[in-house]
Amino acid sequence: MKRILLVAALVCSAYMMSATVLDRIVARVGREVILESELNQQMLQLQKLNMLTDGITRRDVLEQMVQTRLVIQKAKEENYTVDATTVRALAQSQIEQIKSRFPSEQAFQEELRKAGLNIPDLRSMFEDMITEDRLKEQIIRNEIDNRIHITEAEVEEYYNDNLDKFPLRPAVDEVGIISRRVKVSEITRREAMDTMQQVLEQVREGKDFAELAKQYSEGPAAKSGGDLGFFGRGMMIAEIEDVAFNLMPGQVSEVIQGPQGLYIVKVEEKRDDEVRARLIMKKLIPGDTDYEAERILMSRVLDRLNAGEPYADIAVTYSENDTIVANGGILGEFPPDSYPSEYAKELKSLNYGQYSGIIQDGDRFYILAKLRQVPPRPFEYLEIESELREMVRTEKQAELYDEWIKKLMKEKYVEILLEG
Fold first, then answer.
1. Nearest to 417 by CA among 72, 66, 74, 68
2. Do 230 and 224 meet the contact criterion of CB atoms below 8 Å apart?
3. Which are the contacts of 122, defined by CB distance < 8 A and separation ≥ 6?
4. 298 and 266, same structural domain?
5. Does 136 reside within a domain?
6. Which residue, 67, 230, 347, 353, is the most exposed by fewest CB within 10 angstroms?
7. The domain containing residue 326 runs over which residues?
8. pTM
9. What CATH number has the domain bearing residue 364?
């Protein structure tokens, strides 16, 4: 196994051939030649990598070498370059990966010695390989990829023509969730309104607005007596802005309701298109009774589920996630080892047909359901659309590459002298 891992070391075994055997030319590519020793070296590399199947002949390998040589020549003609520093770093990384497979530095060096190599030889080999690969990537990207255009119809046709060749989608677990957020109840809203009405009465009785803001306001400007400074149109939320621009200096608004809570606004002064106002704010947030009411509701939901009522009916009735409701309460289908991270622990503890307890996450309560195991089946088109598109791209790339190589071979002098 170590010999397979040590790619570069094994490649150079060609040097072990008898020095008395003269090289012969097996192919001409433009002004360059490919020697039989180079072919032997490539064959040996493929063999040691277990990439030489019974159907691959020496001529097949030579033809591939010719194509590579053509591409490299074209890349040099078009002045494509690679960064030498990057190449050296990648080559060193390859060496380190190979070295890590050996129990010790000594074992690694011993394997190199057996192959008649040293570290500089190995590094040089990898740098050549990486340089060639990078040049090929650049020229293929520019000569081939920009000519590839894929339509939706082509992807669908590829799916229909090859559906029987795709592996089945593995078994997955169907997972459901009933999720609700705690909302401000009417009772909590009325209590907040009563508090703000009491504050407003104090303002009307003549108490200092700034001092009341420091005492009661829950907004960010409370410490400064609710002073918002001067602001123009479009700088505040609409509810505050509309009131402020319609009041005269010294006037105080009624209690108004906005997206974040309840407000009392006092206008201090106006200039040009700006107004300076103070604000007392009471946030509208769920109280303890709201949380308890939601927990009681979810307990009833869980009781009905455990009593055997249809999950989909309960989920559609009580869950507040529109997307999940539209899907019958289904969160999704997941392999057992790929549950959503936030739910994985609970789901792994459930058997099929079971429900979790009531789980609280901040102001959200939810119940998880491991509904059933979905057996293996063919993938639907939309499930693998991106993969299909890449398959079509790869197929087109191969076709265009073959056409481009044939054209290149006509432009340059290519002669294969190897028989068979």
1. 66
2. no
3. 8, 9, 95, 112
4. no
5. yes
6. 353
7. 172-183+288-374
8. 0.58
9. 3.10.50.40
Q: Which of 230, 256, 283 is the last residue of a domain?
A: 283
Q: How confident is the model at residue 297 (pLDDT cuts 50, 70, 90)?
A: very high
pLDDT digits (tens, 9 = 90+) for 339-387: 999 999 999 999 999 999 999 999 999 999 999 999 999 999 999 999 9
Residue for token pair 């370059």: 81
State the pLDDT at residue 154.
96
CA pair distance 332, 316, nearest whole angstrom:
15
> Does 105 fall in a domain?
yes
The residue with tokens 């509309």 is 242
| Residues 95 and 36 both lie in one domain | yes
Compute the distance between CA of residue 228 and CA of residue 266 in angstroms, rounded to an integer.
10
pLDDT, tens digit (0-9, with 9 covering 90-100), for 37-67: 889 888 876 776 567 777 888 999 999 899 8
If you average pLDDT over residues 295-305, what whole number do you get?
Answer: 97
Same domain, 82 and 17: yes
Q: What's the burial of 308, exposed, middle or buried (CB within 10 Å: 0-12/13-18/19+)?
A: exposed
Question: What is the rounded distance in angstroms from the CA atom of residue 330 to the CA atom of residue 342?
Answer: 16
Farthest CA pair distance, the chain: 115
Q: Are residues 320 and 411 in the same domain?
A: no
End-to-end CA distance of the chain: 32
11 to each of 4, 70, 121, 259, 392, how far by Cα in Å? 10, 22, 11, 72, 35
